[in-house]
Amino acid sequence: MGDPHHHDQHAHDGHGHDGHSHGVSADADRRWLTIALALIGVFMAGEVVAGLIAHSLALLSDAAHMLTDAGGIVLALVAIRLAARPPKGGFTFGLKRAEILSAQANGLTMLILAVWLAIEAVRRLLHPPEVAGGLVLVTALVGIAFNVAATWAIGRANRASLNVEGAFQHILNDLFAFIATAVAGLIVLLTGYTRADAVATLIVVALMVKAGLRLIRESGKIFLEAAPSGIDPPALGRRLTGVGGVVEVHDLHVWQITSGQPALSAHVLVAEGLDCHAIRGEIEQLLRRDYKITHSTLQVDHANPAEHCEDAHGIAYRPA
Questions:
Q1: CATH number of 228-302
Q2: Which of 13, 214, 258, 315 has the highest local Cβ count within 10 Å?
Q3: What is the pLDDT of residue 234?
Q4: Is a pLDDT exceeding 90 seen at residue 203?
């Protein structure tokens, strides 16, 4: 380590450490998602018929939402299978971000459907049609039972995955939708106030917009390589300079490969004559213990300001 020009580049692949949240549970995720898909498919067909007979927008909107639920689950199942494929060719991280694409697609479909339902609900508020409240109430109550079962099934899957969380949010919103529809059906049945059907639809629209925006925001952060929630890169950079022997940290990047898989790269300069390998090991241990970052690529060099990174990207952190 006496050579001042020595540098130590080391890539630490953490898949062996955190694989339980992605690889081992993938089969279980697929099983629970498939059960939920079967429950949704069976009820959705019956709900379309009931909605047409009852002239209920709330029921038809629930059925349309369930169609996006089914599509979301199919996307999630495809994404899980793609993400499990090993890296090859130009895809050096594999296809793990297929899960994030799926989550973003789920969010977008929820927003698009919400716009259509909002327009239709306003039209029905202005010109309310006749609604068969009894049929709406019964169908919604049956729908609540089906959705509780589907929500429970997806809840058993790994919701740390943004992909699975996207499918879960679809189903959970549909459960709330059925509760609102049941209340609307009861109001129509007891009072004859048919506008309650459209009001219930607008409540569902608000829930869909909230869940859709959250999915798009979280998946967008991953696509834009933003630091994972809970990790502050400047604070992390300062923390790394507290490791004994470190004189500077720059080119520090923290991002997520996919949900639950944070990664880090950095260029670390240490004082002359110190053991680069030992310091790198200490930094990796700190990252694993305090930040749950098990996939890190660290270049550790002896400090030589004349020869290292004159055009360093971002902030250069030095001991206080």
A1: 3.30.70.1350
A2: 258
A3: 93
A4: no
The token duo for 31 is 């099983």
| Per-residue b or e along 49-71, where b marks 16 or more CB atoms closer than 10 Å to that residue's CB | ebbeebbbbbbbbbbbbbbbbbb
22 closest CA partner among 154, 161, 200, 116: 161
CA angle 206, 208, 213 (to 5 degrees): 100
Pairing relationship of beta strands 261-270 and 246-258 according to DSSP bridges? antiparallel
Average pLDDT estimate for 23-28? 59
Tokens read off for 149? 């079962």
| Bridge partners, residue 262, by sequence | 256
> Cβ neighbours of residue 313 under 8 Å, at least 6 residues apart?
250, 251
Domain boundaries, given as residue ranges, for the chain: 19-223, 228-302
Sheet strands (E) in the chain: 7-12, 246-258, 261-270, 295-302
Q: Which CATH architecture has domain 19-223?
A: Up-down Bundle (1.20)
In DSSP notation, 92-156 reads TTTTTTHHHHHHHHHHHHHHHHHHHHHHHHHHHHHSPPP--HHHHHHHHHHHHHHHHHHHHHHHT
How would residue 17 be classed by pLDDT, with cut points 50, 70 and 90? very low
According to the model, what pLDDT value does residue 304 have? Answer: 74
Topology agreement, domain 19-223 and domain 228-302: no
User: What mean pLDDT is reported for the chain?
Assistant: 81
Under the banding of pLDDT at 50, 70 and 90, the label for residue 311 is: low
- Buried b vs exposed e over 89-117: b needs ≥16 C-beta within 10 Å? eeeeebbbbbbbbbbbbbbebbbebbeeb
Q: What is the pLDDT of residue 279?
A: 93
Number of Cβ within 10 Å of residue 30's Cβ equals 16
Q: Is the pTM of this model over 0.85?
A: no
How many Cβ atoms are within 10 Å of 213's Cβ, its own excluded? 14
Alpha carbon separation from 85 to 48, 95, 192, 236 (Å, rounded): 37, 7, 56, 32
What local confidence, expressed as pLDDT, does residue 308 receive? 55
- Count other C-beta atoms under 10 Å from residue 275's C-beta: 14
pLDDT of 254 above 90: yes
